[in-house]
Structures are given as structure tokens and as C-alpha cells.
Request: fold
Amino acid sequence: MPRYELALILKTMQRPETAAALRRTVETLMERGAVVRNLENLGEKLLPYKISKHNQKHVTGAYFLLDFYSPPNIIIGLLDHLHRDVDVVRPTVLKKDEPGSAVGGSCCGP
Amino acid sequence: MLSLRGLQRLKSVLTPHRNTSLRSLTVSSSLVQNKDNMLVQMENPYKEPQTGCVLCHVTVDYKNIQLLSQFISPHTGRIYGRHITGLCGRKQKEVSKAIKKAQAMGFMPVTHKHPQFMRDPNICSIKHLN
Reply:
């Protein structure tokens, strides 16, 4: 199964609410047949620009990185679900490349 | 003088040579048969070691906004061109794509450079007035 990365920006909330939102996201993923590999917390940071989502203007956000394996057909449904979630400011799913092919071959220098 | 010439001719006939064409017998032997004056095929001994661009062995990631911010203008946030960054084709494309990705995902500011990275060393060959 191909590897994906979900860069999730959640609304700034108290710890139990953030935990609940993350739990909801991971459970949605697992219901749809994805295998969660890793969840990283990149911290609560000031957003680079004001983002308005769900009739709210956000200035700060909690950044999370979620690695998972999944079949490609569920991704569109997953993104649709995340856009509807009120606590999520910006979800982005990216395909993850295998590290062997990334800087492979000659790159102009020795 | 004439006898010397005659001697040279005789030498060329008597001593065995690889190419026994008529030409070598008539023309004076010192010019054609001497190997030291011929050009030797070898690779350039003064060749400089091949230098790559700054990001040659560095993986470019959209999460590494500090690295990406070194290739944008601090005033406007515009991505510098190849003639300013000095990157090779492949790396310039990777950096450009990563910057646009990071900006779209909400990791990197669009219209300016993050103030935390203003004091980073200048890689690009551009001099700002202040």
C-alpha cells in the first residue's frame, strides 16, 4: 500500500479537546482501512497567515503530522470528512516518496 | 653532405621498420618515426574537481521552512530565480515546489519571510540595501 502523510492543523484548544479531535481523526482513518504508522506533534505555532475556516478566523494552530498506509481510493472521502470537521483548520494529504529514490543518481556534484 | 644523405637513406632501408611504405624510405626518417613529438592522448591533467550547487547532498523538505526561507526575498517573499540562487536545475525545481507546497499547507508565510529567519546567512548572490 502506498504511504501518505497528513499534515493536520487543528484549532488551538485545551489538551483534552485536542486529544479528542486527534482520536476522532485516527479512528476515522482506521475505520476506512488505513494503517496508522506514526503521529508527530510539531507544536502549537502562530499561523503564517490568518486562516478563516468554519466562520472563524484562526491566528494560532496546533500542527500534527500523521504517517499512514492506505489504499488510494479512500483519500478523497477522507479529505472530504476532514474539511467538514469543525476543529480542523487545514488538512493536507501528501504522498510519501521512498527515501532511496529521492536523492538518487548524480546530482551535478560528486 | 651528399654522403650523409646517402647514409641516411641506407639506414632507412637496412634497419627494419613497422611501416615499410615508400614514403618512409624517401622522406628523412627523423621526422616521421620519432614518437616523442607525437601527441599523446590523455585526459586533461588541469581539470578542476566538479563542484555541485549548495544543496547537492541535502534533501529538500516542505517542513524545513528555515532552509526554504533562505531562497525567498525578505521584503516580498518572492522566490529567487536560478541566476540568484545558483542552484542546479533539479534542486531549483525541488525548492520552488517545496516553497509553494509549504505556503499552501499553512507552514510558510507567502508575502514575507518569517522574522525568526531574518538573521540567517545569505546564500543567494543578492545584496540588500540595508
Observations:
- The longest strand of chain A covers residues 35-53.
- Residues 15-31 of chain A form the longest helix (17 residues).
